[in-house]
Specification:
alpha+beta
């Protein structure tokens, strides 16, 4: 998609001439953007154009693919310009690990996108930095664990939610349906029970609208037009996609304010029901002692929205990829269901079953690897000047750890572009961990909900495999099932339907 096409499509009232005039003015203001006054060896990269940078070389529908191609030419550490913004890209398992793990301090800051900065103002846990980030992450981790993450209490919540999800799937009686909403609602209810202290019914409009808007937000943020917004905020305000995004975010904030108000009215400091209660109690205690810095309403709102989005989208999306892959590769589905039948039979799936189910575990891991949900990670930023693999990177430089290049690294994976569960099995069929398995990123900014996601993936996926056989809709062959991801900040499957045929 051409850059000028996007400008023309964004608003019927904006002429091409007007857009070009604005571009010219911005170029005059930022004409020195690409000039380097430092003779130290910086990472190589394609020559940028004034103002546009390397934009014309990028496929904005799948920029991670363009960056993968550029890494073949310029190496594992290279520079691109996203508009006037300089970005250093890290490619390949060894390079990404060296940066995020071995040099965690230098590469551990978050670089907020323009959209994130406007909507979070540096609050919350995903886009924040410094002491605020440390305090919010510590508090979030502590309380997610206190309210069940990684514990038997959380396992029980997931098992309970599986029952509701099975009922939804059974209602279709083997007819083709879109798995998106029921899967999103089921997974979202787990984070809701931890954050708000209760789950919601799947027909509760307050709940479904919150989940659906969040899903749409994630799709919009990765759209070509909002990628342009992040590069050129002066012009991007004219983008219709941004207007839609702001409406959705405002609606989600208003809805959360109502939820917070109801929780506050019934708050019992001696019996916190979830994360929001714990935050409100901490806020109250610190205000009374006069030492409150970080526990305020903006941080509560941003952190809850962060947890809700992260706790819903990636896990639900991975599960949907898993079901799609089972329908596309029925022989692998046969092997999973044979193992489920042999190890579990008709009883309730338990987390402890995982150690006795190496093939199912390998299928889940391979789904995460191939699905490549967050291909470019969330942008990092250098906290100080650093010399890395012989290249000088200045303090404050945006850094993209290209997770696609890790999960598809052909020096680490035997069949990087294929669905190959044997990647995670030894010659005896036992499960093996792989160092280059990095879907949750790594280092200081590793996903704080990793243990919850792993628990959800195993219990939801195995339970569904126990109860249903997934097939393409009538008239559609396995070969016809499309594995091309939908455009978005995370890579969801393209719209599709599956049949869930009861096998119990």
């Amino acid at each position: 998609m051409g850059v000028l096409d996007l400008f023309l499509q964004s608003s019927s009232s904006v002429s091409l001439l007007g857009a070009l005039v604005v571009l010219l003015l911005v170029y005059i203001i930022s004409s020195s953007s690409f000039s380097s006054q430092d003779d130290r060896k910086e990472p190589p990269g394609p020559k940028p154009l004034p103002l546009l940078g390397n934009l014309l070389q990028l496929d904005l529908k799948k920029p991670y693919s363009t960056l993968m191609e550029l890494s073949k030419k310029y190496g594992s550490v290279f520079t691109v310009y996203l508009g006037p913004k300089k970005v250093v890209v890290l490619a390949g398992y060894k390079t990404v690990k060296e940066a995020l793990v071995n040099n965690a301090e230098e590469f551990g800051e978050r670089d907020p996108l323009i959209l994130a900065q406007e909507n979070n103002q540096g609050h919350g846990v995903i886009w924040s930095n410094g002491d605020l980030w440390k305090e919010m992450r510590r508090f979030a981790l502590t309380n997610l664990r206190d309210f069940g993450m990684g514990k038997k209490a959380c396992e029980d919540k997931i098992i309970e939610e599986c029952g509701y999800l099975l009922e939804v799937f059974q209602k279709f009686k083997g007819e083709a349906f879109d798995t998106t909403q029921p899967m999103n609602y089921a997974v979202s209810n787990i984070i809701c029970s931890i954050v708000y202290g209760s789950r919601f019914e799947y027909d509760d409009p307050e709940f479904t609208s919150l989940v659906d808007r969040t899903n749409r937000n994630i799709q919009l943020v990765g759209s070509p037009s909002l990628q342009l917004y992040n590069m050129f905020p002066w012009i991007g305000k004219l983008m219709n996609a941004n207007k839609e995004l702001q409406k959705l975010i405002s609606a989600n904030k208003e809805q959360n304010l109502r939820l917070f108000s109801r929780l506050k009215e019934t708050l019992n400091p001696q019996l916190c029901r979830g994360f929001v209660d714990a935050f409100l109690v901490q806020k109250q205690n610190l205000e009374e002692s006069g030492t409150n810095i970080y526990f305020h309403n903006n941080n509560l709102m941003s952190t809850v929205l962060n947890l809700f989005a992260a706790g819903t989208d990636t896990t639900a999306t991975t599960l949907r990829w898993g079901l799609l892959l089972m329908a596309k590769y029925p022989k692998i589905q046969n092997q999973v269901q044979e193992e489920v039948s042999r190890v579990i039979g008709s009883r309730q799936v338990q987390l402890e079953d995982r150690k006795n189910m190496p093939f199912t575990d390998a299928v889940i891991h391979e789904t995460q690897r191939l699905a490549n949900i967050v291909p470019m990670a969330i942008p990092h930023r250098t906290s100080r000047d650093v010399t890395f693999q012989g290249h000088f990177i200045k303090k404050g430089t945006t850094v993209y750890p290209l997770l696609t290049s890790v999960l598809y690294d052909d020096t680490e994976w035997e069949k990087p572009r294929s669905f190959h569960p044997a990647h995670f099995l030894d010659k005896d069929g036992k499960f093996v961990k792989r160092d280059a398995f990095m879907p949750f990123s790594a280092g200081r900014r590793i996903c704080l909900g990793e243990s919850l996601a792993k628990m959800e993936l195993f219990i939801f996926f195995t339970t569904l495999m126990q109860h249903f056989r997934f097939t393409p809709p009538p008239g559609v062959s396995e070969d016809d099932l499309d594995l091309t991801p939908r455009v978005g900040f995370t890579l969801n499957p393209s719209p599709h339907k599956l049949c869930a045929v009861s096998c119990m």
